[in-house]
Structures are given as structure tokens and as C-alpha cells.
Write a structure and sequence with these properties.
Elements: H1 3-15, E1 20-25, H2 28-31, H3 35-48, E2 55-60, E3 72-75, E4 79-82, H4 89-96, E5 104-105, H5 111-114, H6 132-137, H7 142-150, H8 153-163, H9 175-184, E6 191-196, H10 205-212, H11 214-228, E7 232-238, H12 242-257, E8 273-279, H13 288-295, E9 319-323, H14 324-328, H15 330-336, H16 338-342, E10 352-359, E11 365-370, H17 375-382, E12 392-397, E13 403-406, H18 416-421, E14 430-435, H19 440-454, H20 460-477, H21 483-499, H22 503-507, H23 510-518, H24 520-524
Parallel strand pairs: 1-2, 6-7, 6-9, 7-8, 10-14
Antiparallel strand pairs: 1-3, 3-4, 4-5, 10-11, 12-13, 12-14
Helix pairs in contact: 3-4, 7-11, 7-15, 8-9, 8-11, 10-12, 19-20, 19-23, 20-21
Length: 547
């Protein structure tokens, strides 16, 4: 494969495009609502209408407005059909010929779509994820060619440093710095790992990218491997993502067949292969050292750092670990330049961020917005606010590791620093909206139960501390706790946060701490009066009546 062959594939694919295209969402959300039958009926209706030479029915990835699926969009007219069922196929074809569509019409010009800026999701809902030719037609693998034939590894690392991209897995570590560290680490063998073990409740960003644009991840991994000197890659995906895994397998097979993975890529000395490792759904395996243990075939438990994976990772070799969204940014940065990417977002948080918008909100789905976009814009304009005339009470970001942000702070810009000041984190991108009926103590208990169940048990603070915190939250919910129990809960939060081995335990108290900070009254109103003094000295506490 060389550049001329790549361009020939692109030209053939574009030349084969028809007058009309019906893009049918085939991501997991729409597939669960019978999208496969919708696509089949559309193809049948096209044939019966004799429009096979004019209309292409294309299965695509996530079209973002998941609450209205299955979704179909007719191009070039830009007509969006929502909640499409198989019986609506003929009316959609009639709409292309000037008839009236019986399917529910959406509005592609609504704030949900117009406020987005697509980099990671640029191909999502556009390309066919099961055809490499469709990805190549969208300039796929052009960045890899440019890197292999025109740049050296140091220049690639420099471009990533210039971009200011920070890891999208939650910690926000500078990507260029991490790549540079792995590149400088001595070792004859190095690895690149894609962390696709997305486990936050309510999060589906990485799954959607894998289902919608798998070749973008392969291209990003290959560029990263060239930059750091690796020749082997692993994608660690959870078994609960069967559609994503299936499309990744197809993408790897297609890339190998085209010479875009394997030996001598683009007639260069660079060799790179990718294998998939399937996780069993342990949340702790999203932590990088536990993930590596699992890839090696061992029990997925974290280990102390240092040494860091960049120095001693898989099988003791230098290893670069980035998550799905981070790697999906790589090819666009190479194509457009690091300065282009750095011009988006805020001073310290560059680029865009993908969020899975869910919860008590009208428009649920996948969004990508520039860093620094206010939460209010996301929740009230793009999300449409609370349904049924409700009011927004809080927004939870960062999953079990994040915090709950109250409605009076909705003008907060979405960036690493601003969320951190409110006791939350960016996380991988889950964003759950809560309305006036949400009990914030129950929210804290839910996330604590999740962390308690998912703790690997290796370190005592997390193993025992999460159990005790969950017990106290249970006690508060049942109105059996006292002020001393609340004090004990806060002390445990501090202890678990400060002494746990890995990020799971260190961040497990965050939902409790943030709800205590902003919704303390909901805890206090459920407390029983203390029978004894605040120190439990056995003497009854003084009351107004006895004073």
C-alpha cells in the first residue's frame, strides 16, 4: 500500500456515491430498538421503488440523539427521521420523491446538534464502520502515511506536545509528555495499549466511538506506536461491548489485508500489529496497572507506582496506555496540526470533550463540545432541561469517581480545573442530570455501593472503608444515624481518599464528599438526635429542656 493506492480507494469510494444517501444508525442503542430491521426495510423499499441507482442505504455509527432512536438521516437534504420503525420505510422513500413522511421528523438545526464541535465524532454517523473504504474516503490513514513517510518520531511527539491534548481517561495527564517519556525509556520491546474498559455507570462514549469509527483508533494507535518505538498494540475492551469488539475485529482484519497493519506499513521499516484482549467487566481493570495485569493473564489488581507503565509496563517493558477518546484525537491532530487543536478550548484544557448525556433530561445521547463550554449550555440548551416541567437539581460528572455539581453552579465551564474546584472531575465523560425529585444521599449511596462491589480487595482502606461508608449511608437513608455517624462518615472519606492504593479507592469518596458539601441539609434532616454527647462519653447530651 502506498499513497497513490490509498487515494485511488478514496476516489473510487467517492465516485460510487449516489444522489441520495439514507444514513441509518447501527450503533448499539438503535440496534436494541430494531434498527437492523429498519435498514433492511429501507433497502427493500429502495429496490421496490426502482431507485437502486439513485439511493444508497448506509449503515453508520452513532448519530448522537440516542433518546429518539432508531435514527435515519436523508442526505443531501438533511432530513432527520426519529423513532423510525420498519413500517415507516416506504414513507421515507416517498419523502425523497417529494411525498410526506409518516416517520417523526427531527430538527438537525436544534441546539443539541449546532452547539457541538466534532473532532472525535467527526466520522460518527457518517462512515460505514464495517468498511475500511468508507473510512479511507474520509481521509482515513492519510495521517499515518504522513507520519511514516515525512516525520520522525521526535516530530510526532512534538506535535502532540504542541496540541496540548490531555488524556481523556479521567486523570488529564499531558499526552505529549507521556509519549515522550515512553519514547525515551530504554527497551528493545515496547507496547501501546488502548484502554477501552469503560465502566462508569451511564457512560457510553468509548463504546460509541469503537462501534462508529474503529479505524480511527487503529490509526491513532499506529501513530502512537511509531512515535514511541513500539511494534505491538493491545485493545483492552470489556466483554459487555460485543458489537464494538466485532467491529474492531473486522477493522483489524481489513487493515491487515490492505497492508495498513503488519509488516512494512506504507513501504516503511515500521511494523505494527494489534490484538484484542477482552475483559470480564471488572471496573478496577480500568486502572492502568490492573489492566496490564489482566492482559498478562493474571488477576486484575493494581500495583504500587512507581515504576510507572512508561518505564515498566507489560511484561516489564515500557508501555504507553491511552484511552479510546485520546487515541481518536491523534489522526486529526496530525492532519490539521497541533496548533489547530491548541486553538480550541481553554488555556489549560485544549480541544473538545465527548460526553454521554443521560438522566433526568429531555435530550439524552452523545455530545462533543469545546472545552470550556458552560454546563448550563450543555444541560439547558443542548439537553433541553428537565422533562415534564421539572427543574435541574444537580449534574454528576466523572462517574463513581466524580462529584455532584449543584444547579447554582451550572455556569461553571467544563474543563479539568473548574470541575476540580467543585470537588468533581472530568472523568471519562459520563454526565448524569438529576431533577428536583432526586435524593442526593441515595445518589451517594448508589455510587458507594458500586465502588464497594468493584473494589479488588487488595488494600484494606478501600476494601473495608467502602463497606463501612456504605453501611453509614444505609443508616442515614433509614433515618437511624446520628450526628456522630455523619462525623464518622466524613472521617472515613478522608482516610479512604488519602490511603487507598489506586484511583478506585482514592476517588470513591468523591460523590459522598460533594453531596455533603452542597446538599448537607439532606443528610442532616435524616439524622436522629444523639443520645450521648458528641464524644460518646456515656453522659446524656444536654438539651434545652435540661439546661
Amino acid at each position: 500500500m502506498d499513497l497513490s493506492e490509498l487515494n485511488q480507494i478514496k476516489e473510487r469510494e467517492l465516485a460510487a456515491r449516489k444522489k441520495y444517501t439514507l444514513r441509518c444508525c447501527m450503533a448499539a442503542g438503535c440496534m436494541s430498538s430494531n434498527a437492523e430491521s429498519v435498514k433492511e426495510e429501507l433497502e427493500k423499499a429502495v429496490t421496490e421503488a426502482g431507485l437502486g441507482q439513485e439511493v444508497e442505504v448506509r449503515g453508520v455509527g452513532c448519530m448522537r440523539l440516542c433518546c429518539e432512536g432508531p435514527l435515519v438521516q436523508a442526505d443531501p437534504d438533511g432530513i432527520l427521521f426519529e423513532q423510525v420503525d420498519p413500517d415507516a420505510a416506504k414513507s421515507i422513500i416517498a419523502a425523497l420523491k417529494g411525498g410526506k413522511a409518516k416517520a417523526r421528523l427531527g430538527n438537525p438545526q436544534s441546539p443539541f446538534f449546532t452547539q457541538q464541535k466534532s473532532i472525535v465524532l467527526a466520522n460518527s454517523g457518517i462512515v460505514d464502520p464495517e468498511r475500511i473504504e468508507s473510512y479511507i474516503a474520509a481521509d482515513g490513514y492519510q495521517a499515518l502515511y504522513h507520519v511514516l513517510r515525512e516525520l520522525d518520531p521526535n516530530e510526532v511527539v512534538t506535535e502532540m506536545v504542541t496540541s496540548g491534548l490531555r488524556g481523556r481517561g479521567g486523570a488529564g495527564f499531558p499526552v505529549g509528555l507521556k509519549w515522550g517519556t515512553v519514547a525515551k525509556s530504554p527497551g528493545a520491546k515496547k507496547y501501546v495499549v488502548c484502554n477501552a474498559d469503560e465502566g462508569d455507570p451511564g457512560a457510553f462514549m468509548d463504546r460509541s466511538v469503537l462501534e462508529s469509527d474503529p479505524h480511527a483508533i487503529l490509526e491513532g494507535m499506529a501513530i502512537a506506536a511509531f512515535a514511541v518505538g513500539a511494534d505491538q498494540g493491545f485493545i483492552y475492551a470489556r466483554a459487555e461491548y460485543p458489537l464494538a469488539i466485532d467491529r474492531l475485529k473486522k477493522a483489524i482484519k481489513q487493515a491487515k489485508a490492505k497492508g495498513l497493519l503488519g509488516a512494512g506499513i506504507f513501504d516503511s521499516p515500521f511494523n505494527f500489529t494489534v490484538d484484542i484482549r477482552i475483559g470480564a467487566g471488572a471496573f478496577v481493570c480500568g486502572e492502568e496497572t490492573a489492566l496490564m495485569m489482566s492482559i498478562e493473564g493474571r488477576r486484575g489488581t493494581p500495583r504500587p507506582r512507581p515504576p510507572f507503565p512508561a518505564e515498566s509496563g507489560l511484561w516489564g517493558c515500557p508501555t504507553l496506555i491511552n484511552n479510546v477518546e485520546t487515541l481518536a484525537n491523534v489522526a486529526p491532530i496530525i492532519r490539521n496540526g497541533g496548533e489547530w487543536f491548541a486553538g480550541i478550548g481553554t488555556e489549560k484544557s485544549k480541544g473538545t470533550k465527548v460526553f454521554a448525556l443521560a438522566g433526568k433530561i429531555k435530550n439524552t445521547g452523545l455530545i462533543e463540545v469545546p472545552m470550556g463550554t458552560p454546563l448550563r449550555t450543555i444541560v439547558e440548551e443542548m439537553g433541553g432541561g428537565a422533562p415534564d416541567g421539572g427543574t435541574i437539581k444537580a449534574v454528576q460528572t466523572g462517574g463513581p469517581s466524580g462529584g455532584c455539581i449543584p444547579a447554582h453552579s451550572l455556569d461553571t465551564p467544563v474543563d479539568y480545573e473548574s470541575l476540580g474546584k467543585l470537588g468533581s472531575i472530568m472523568g471519562s465523560g459520563g454526565m448524569i442530570v438529576m431533577d428536583q425529585d432526586t435524593n442526593m444521599v441515595d445518589v451517594a449511596r448508589f455510587f458507594m455501593e458500586f465502588c464497594m462491589d468493584e473494589s479488588c480487595g487488595k488494600c484494606i482502606p478501600c476494601r473495608a472503608g467502602t463497606v463501612q461508608m456504605h453501611h453509614l449511608l444505609d443508616k442515614i437513608m433509614d433515618r437511624k444515624a446520628t450526628a456522630r455517624d455523619l462525623q464518622k462518615l466524613e472521617e472515613l472519606c478522608d482516610m479512604v481518599k488519602s490511603t487507598s492504593l489506586c484511583g478506585l479507592g482514592q476517588t470513591a469518596p468523591n460523590p459522598t464528599l460533594s453531596t455533603l458539601r452542597f446538599f448537607r441539609n439532606e443528610y442532616e434532616e435524616r439524622l436522629q438526635p444523639d443520645v450521648f454527647g458528641p464524644r460518646g462519653n456515656g453522659k446524656p447530651a444536654k438539651t434545652k429542656a435540661s439546661a
